[in-house]
């Protein structure tokens, strides 16, 4: 290394030093707040941790316990449910809406602005807002249902519906962001493709499915990965919309809410909580790898 | 120009970092000649202004000697943050404690107070006995009690009037309550109304914790080693609540999940609610109470009695506190007659300091707050053994029973078995 460094000119070395100094804060932050805690978390997952101190080493006991823990499997099933239902909905809605506001319609800018509002709103506000919209007693959603002659539904209080209510809010808040991404991708498509198609007499349906959609696949791929990771880590909306001690909280429990309960609210289960988060990280990694492998079969590559 | 901006930025940075430094300095109290500084942590934002006034009074009286600063941490993160700060020896000198006290005693992070109490023959009988006992662990006192709370029933007299149902009288029973609720239910249905006869909060303290004991069952045995929710009396108590819901005498579980019982009551949606004294100012300030439509009454009796559990906060000292004498001085003041009388007058807490209690009732114009005092006179200490792994299991079992995803029998049997396994492991 030292020898190599000597090959650089003095000016170049000074430049590099400056570069490293600029990187340092970011790198230190990453190391301190991401890398070290990540490793520490893995180490904790092999321990039984009390409220204070470092606990005792118990090997794979935490992981063994997970296998027979009904609540863990419930949380896993719920998380899978959120991902399986939520990811396609987010992708389909964002493509659909992006396609609509990409047309030359009146008031396009207004629609674009409105669609983007959820993306720039803090999740806490969204959660509280939807909690009231869906409220059985006072919510506008149920008021509309009643006006339509339908029965009121206790969206967040009835264990049959609570997971759907969570999905609704998650999709609503995520679509907003991915509409913008899809819209940008659509506008990046070379207009000569469309001109050629129009000359050949293609219908707008054909244009969408034969040109727009294939050209979007790289962006869809990216979005699917990001949305999947986002939904697998779902916590905030559940925490904000459902009271902790109620049945709905148990029935809508995701892996991260279960992790939170173990790591922060049960004094003797911190190591167990760590094990849950390690399992979640592993699941996310495996799913992402599968998606990477599957990529070549459906994503249009290069230009 | 550029130079000026740079200079300005530099100056700004210096100012900011200087304030940041002074901001951090509160905890240490190591400054050699200045006053001894102490930090006090608490969670309740609503109580903060009044406690700040008490702290200011203390600081003024100890000008140049002791300087107390308050750090308010919201409830949601209070315990997490406290645990972290205790672990890194950066804990506040004095802080609020509740039923979790045993856990902190076991961890050895609280300063035992017996030597201070004996050293100056400090009279503990000035406080309500139940609250002193609650903070006495294995014969050692760990906290000076701040306040106490009690549970009563609030009635919406307007709904009783509107639907032509007579108000219950003191000494009523659950049979009376069922009868009243049925009358209300039928009258509401006949008039096409949407109100509920009875509502309650789903958490333990203002609701089912009381029913268990009032019906002769229990939550935790006297010795703190056995969970009693599967006792026939306990099961029966919970079954009676479930029956109320099924007979539409009480709002259904899903509704109570979404909107808290107290909120339903305050918005005029319910005639009867079980309510804790910690909600007294919310009640007092409601338009319902301002219109004179709220009446408080003692809880109805079940098979045994109508006694309610009594919680309450206390002030504890960190074992790592560097100025223990000063901290003790402060604890005596903040739980003392003058400070607690002020809290009572402002209506933020029922003082555990007995002679300061009088001011509490007079503070309320719209509700008969004396009901809280009467309830606290017969109250029993909130049952706790300092372990909270089994309580979450019991909480979940209760929700399963009340939400009727399991029968009361199943939920209580399974919950008790699981909770007992933990209790046996910890205390066996």
TrEMBL record, chain A:
Principal location class = membrane
Q: Which UniProt keywords apply?
A: Cell membrane, Membrane, Transmembrane, Transmembrane helix, Transport
Membrane topology is: Multi-pass membrane protein
Is Protein transport given among the entry's keywords? no
Which SUPFAM superfamilies does this entry report, sorted A to Z?
MetI-like (SSF161098)
For this protein, the record's PROSITE patterns field holds: ABC_TM1
> Where does this polypeptide localize?
Cell membrane
Looking at the UniProt entry, the stretches that span the membrane are 20-39, 80-98, 110-133, 161-186, 207-235, 247-264, 271-293
Coiled coil (residue ranges): none
Q: Does the keyword Transmembrane apply?
A: yes
Span of domain ABC transmembrane type-1: 76-291
* InterPro entries xrefs: ABC_transporter_permease (IPR051393), MetI-like (IPR000515), MetI-like_sf (IPR035906)
Q: Which family does it belong to?
A: Belongs to the binding-protein-dependent transport system permease family.
Listed PANTHER family? ABC TRANSPORTER PERMEASE PROTEIN, INNER MEMBRANE ABC TRANSPORTER PERMEASE PROTEIN YCJO
This protein's name: Sugar ABC transporter permease
Which species does the entry assign this protein to? Oscillibacter valericigenes
TrEMBL record, chain B:
Q: Which CDD domains match?
A: PBP2_TMBP_like
Q: Which residues form the signal peptide?
A: 1-20
Database matches in Pfam families: SBP_bac_1 (PF01547)
Q: Which InterPro entries match?
A: Bact_solute-bd_prot1 (IPR050490), SBP (IPR006059)
Q: What is its main location?
A: other
| PROSITE patterns, per the entry | PROKAR_LIPOPROTEIN
Q: Where in the cell is it found?
A: Cell envelope
Transcription: is it a keyword of this entry? no
Q: What keywords are annotated for this sequence in UniProt?
A: Signal, Transport
The chain's coiled-coil residues are none
Sequence similarity: Belongs to the bacterial solute-binding protein 1 family.
The identity of this protein, by name, is Sugar ABC transporter substrate-binding protein
Organism per entry: Oscillibacter valericigenes
